[in-house]
Amino acid sequence: MKLKRCPNMHYYDEDKYAQCPHCAAARPAEPAPVPKPAPQPVKEPVKEPAGEPAPDGTWRCSCGAVNNGKFCVQCGTRKPSEEEAAAPEKPAAVSLGKWVCSCGNENEGNFCNRCGSPRPAPETAPPEPEGEAEKSLTSVISEVSFTGNIEDAKEKAAADDDEGVTQIIFDELADELVLGWLVAANTEIKGKVFTVAETSATVGRSDPEHPVSIDLHGDRAVSRGAQAVIVYDPLNKKFFIQSTGGKTPVYVNRQMLLAPTELSAYDVILLGTTELVFVPLCSEKFSW
Amino acid sequence: MRCEIRSFIGTRSRQEDHAVSCETGNGLFCAVCDGIGSRKDGAASSRLAAERFAELFKAGFEGGFPRFITEAAERIDREVYESFGSGCGTTAVVVCVKGRELWWLSVGDSRLYILRGGRLKQITTDHDYSYVLDLRLKRGIIDREKYEAEKHKGGRLASFIGMGGVDIADVSMKPLTLEENDRLLLTTDGLYKSIGDGQIAEIMNGNNDPAAAADSLIEAVRACVGTIDNTTLALIG
Q1: Could you list the residue range(s) of the whole structural domain that residue A221 is in?
Q2: What angle do CA B26, B31, B33 make, to 5 degrees?
Q3: Which of A128, A145, A213 to mutate to test the interface with B (most CBs of B within 10 A)?
Q4: B119 vs A218: CB contact, 8 Å cut-off?
Q5: Are residues A102 and A190 in the same domain?
């Protein structure tokens, strides 16, 4: 056997593998084809007939609307004097239907074409100043606050049911059929039983983004996320263990786990500082 | 700024909340802790945690508050775990007010609120299973079906002091600059599950004196019918 470390810090037997098997396992078989975005109808830019002369007796506003009053019905701009004819363009405003001005004139634009008064504000109230203040406080809080794993926080800093009783999330028993158990043999969780109750059970340390089924949450020597996977083969009634290629090396009976290995009763798995004794329920003698 | 602490046992047989405050050259410090109910030594866990936070704060620290408080939280987590074993614990919401700077840490579902310009705003996140589920759904770790199936467990606590390895925490990485007339409220879930944010805001707005506001908040909880949880709050203003 020739122990080799790949650039991603995985160990493997170079006699058996040409390439790192952990990296190969982690690599997706083929990149999923990226769906082509559906063709979007191209919006034709509204052409402003700039330079086109307005019909007699009317004038063309810089927003493009043709008017006959003293003020543009579209944007409220006063009719320009000859000298002002070359005024800078204004963005076109949206027409919102007819309205009657306080002066009695009926209009379609945003401003009365008789007196220049603006269209009354729509029913929806403008944003309250308090709303703005609240928004800015929210953004300030999100800027200074961190929510997430405390180790990440530290790193960053260095750089109901029965009578409303509080329940915690990880004392929940799995509702699947039991396949076997892992029993902690040392550390402060000595004697604690973890149930291997899924066809595939991950061992490691959970955080909200990397859930694992067997969570050694008290062992900080175990990196977050799944470090090993226990697989049950229901046809042959055998258990296997495999490293996920994570940061924490996995040992079985003090041998480093490099390739998928069969687990036998009373094998000792070492992860971080925690030793776990494997006790199968399913075997040749019993299975579900 | 003054800190007014009030507590109410509710309809429970034991008071498992604990709160402390102190003031040093590093500012005004306050910790509010909610011991985990139905579990032995919930009250002892919250007392130990709150008092240890204050002790460590009084002992002083080098470097910034975020580093001090995250290290303190992990250390106290270990102490609570070692003192009472697994199955015990406490939430913790702590603040430090130094001049106009507000710093905080929270582990669990106790909350820190700020009242600014008459509006109440929750600063911290509740570290319950809903938080975990939302995050997992957002990241694609679980699907909608799994999310819906698990949602009924959403109120369960996902992170606390004494779990033997704190997971989720809220920490201020930079200070929030306080404005004149800002007021702060640290509270266990007894308060906000009994009377809700709207009523909390109304009471705080109606009582400019922090002591009167703190008393009125407790009175409002007392006036509630049905099961009432332990309620402990600290009002800073």
Answers
A1: 171-280
A2: 165
A3: A145
A4: no
A5: no
The answer to whether A16 contacts chain B (CB < 8 Å) is no
* ipTM computed for the complex: 0.74
- The whole-angstrom separation of Cα A215 and Cα A208 is 12
pTM summary value: 0.62
Interior angle at CA B107, CA B60 and CA A166, nearest 5: 135
Residues A216 and A246 sit within 8 Å (Cβ to Cβ): no
Neighbours of A230 (CB within 10 A): 24
Task: For residue B172, list chain A residues with Cβ-Cβ distance below 8 A.
Answer: 144-146
Torsion angles phi and psi, residue A92, rounded to 5? -65, 135
Residue A248 domain-assigned? Answer: yes
The tens digit of pLDDT for each residue in A144-167 reads 889 888 888 888 887 733 445 566
Q: Does A30 touch chain B (CB under 8 A)?
A: no
pLDDT in tens, B188-222: 999 999 999 999 999 999 999 999 999 999 999 99
Sequence-ordered strand ranges (E) for chain B: 3-8, 17-24, 27-34, 92-98, 101-107, 111-116, 119-122, 168-172, 176-177, 183-187, 231-236
Domains of chain B: 3-125+158-236 (3.60.40.10)
The reply to whether A128 touches chain B by the CB within 8 Å rule is: no
- CA neighbor of B157 nearest in space, from B43, B52, B71, B35: B35
User: For residues A51 and A44, what is the distance between their CA atoms, to the nearest angstrom?
Assistant: 20
Asked if the structure places residue A33 within a domain, the reply is: no
**Ramachandran angles phi, psi of A255, nearest 5°:** -105, 135
The whole-angstrom separation of Cα A150 and Cα A67 is: 66
- CATH number for the domain that contains residue A228: 2.60.200.20
Mean pLDDT score, B110-134: 95
Closest CA to B11 of B199, B216, B225: B225
What ranges make up the beta strands (E) of A125-247?
145-149, 180-184, 193-196, 200-205, 214-215, 225-233, 238-243
Residue A216 in contact with residue A203, Cβ under 8 Å?
Answer: yes
In angstroms, the first-to-last Cα distance of chain B is 5
For B193, which residue in chain A has the nearest alpha carbon?
A164
